[in-house]
């Protein structure tokens, strides 16, 4: 029997930790946190930290943490919040540019807040649901092909591995190992042949996260006008206050994108501040130019 290369076994064999198997192939999304640690160690040229990030324990623990509900919906919340505050602030700016009253601000702002929020949530739900259905359909097809045409599927994977630079012998070794476990083989086919990873988010929760974030963040530009219903706020102070609150919220949400993009938080915050400010400026100018319309 030919001895398998160590690096191929590391790719395909399960990692043993705490008495459980933890596969190390076909699950790239499960090691994000460990990769962050490895990147940090590389930037600091910290060999001990790098070795720790590549230990069997770290690999296994990273897989156990994969899919935590606290992280799955961060993207929906951040982008829902960003869209909410930008669109609502644009409405407020347009009304302010047209020199209309605070009552009009609230009517248009709240109508946009709930209608657009519901539209965003519906879109998030349908998009997530469609992606899951498409993934499940393709997974069923691949499973059927594995069951009925295993040799054809093996040949496909050998070709894919060779295209990636593996030798014919190593490619055959890889598929020999993967095909010993049907589930592992199926997941490998989904990733390598179709480039598809499962989305573990529930569509209804994705929609809910988007809606809640949209309404909460989108309400920020309206806070001063809502407060004006119970206390007297000078007209010339309301819009500047809305600008200040919206600017802080946009910067904060832009900075929060670091949880998704892993980029510099300051740059993310400033970018969103510029984008939101540009949208609001356009809305204000349009409102100003049309301020006499219908008078």
Could you tell me how far the N terminus lies from the C terminus, measured between alpha carbons in angstroms?
90 Å
Question: What percentage of amino acids are in beta strands?
Answer: under 5%
Overall geometry comes to elongated
Put simply, the count of helices is 15
Q: How much is the radius of gyration in Å?
A: 26 Å
> Which spans have pLDDT < 50 for at least 5 consecutive residues?
1-31, 64-70
Written as H for each helix and E for each strand, in order along the chain, the element string is HEEHHHHHHHHHHHHHH
Biggest β-sheet description = 2 strands, antiparallel
Query: Number of folding domains?
Result: 2
- Total strand segments: 2
Structural class: mainly alpha
Strand arrangement, major sheet: 1-2
Q: Give the % helix.
A: over 70%
Mean pLDDT equals 77
Q: What does this 3D model show about the protein?
A:
This protein is mainly alpha-helical. The chain has two domains: 6-65, no CATH class; 73-289, no CATH class. It is 75% helix and 2% strand. The protein has helices at residues 6-12, 32-44, 47-53, 56-65, 69-72, 74-97, 102-148, 150-163, 168-178, 182-192, 203-218, 223-227, 235-256, 258-261, 265-289; strands at residues 15-17, 20-22. Strands 1-2 form a two-stranded antiparallel ribbon.
């Amino acid at each position: 029997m030919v001895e398998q290369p160590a690096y191929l076994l590391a790719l395909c064999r399960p990692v043993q930790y705490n008495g459980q198997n933890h596969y190390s192939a076909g699950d790239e999304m499960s090691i994000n946190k460990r990769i962050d640690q490895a990147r940090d160690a590389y930037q600091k040229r910290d060999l001990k930290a790098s070795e720790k990030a590549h230990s069997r324990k770290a690999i296994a623990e990273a897989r156990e943490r994969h899919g935590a509900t606290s992280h799955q919906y961060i993207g929906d919340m951040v982008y829902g919040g960003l869209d909410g505050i930008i669109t609502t602030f644009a409405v407020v700016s347009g009304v302010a540019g047209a020199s209309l009253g605070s009552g009009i601000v609230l009517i248009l702002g709240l109508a946009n807040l709930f209608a657009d929020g519901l539209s965003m949530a519906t879109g998030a739900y349908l998009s997530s649901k469609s992606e899951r259905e498409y993934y499940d359909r393709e997974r069923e097809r691949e499973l059927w092909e594995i069951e009925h045409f295993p040799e054809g599927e093996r040949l496909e994977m050998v070709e894919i591995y060779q295209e990636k630079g593996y030798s014919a012998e190593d490619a055959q070794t890889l598929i020999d190992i993967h095909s010993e476990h049907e589930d592992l083989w199926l997941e490998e086919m989904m990733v390598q042949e179709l480039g598809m990873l499962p989305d573990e988010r529930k569509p209804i929760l994705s929609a809910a996260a988007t809606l809640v974030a949209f309404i909460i963040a989108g309400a920020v530009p309206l806070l001063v006008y809502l407060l004006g219903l119970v206390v007297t706020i000078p007209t010339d102070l309301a819009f500047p206050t809305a600008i200040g609150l919206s600017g802080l919220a946009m910067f904060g949400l832009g900075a929060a994108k670091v949880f998704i993009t892993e980029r510099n938080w300051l740059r993310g915050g400033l970018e969103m501040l510029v984008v939101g400010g540009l949208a609001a400026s356009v809305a204000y100018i349009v409102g100003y130019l049309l301020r006499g319309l219908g008078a």
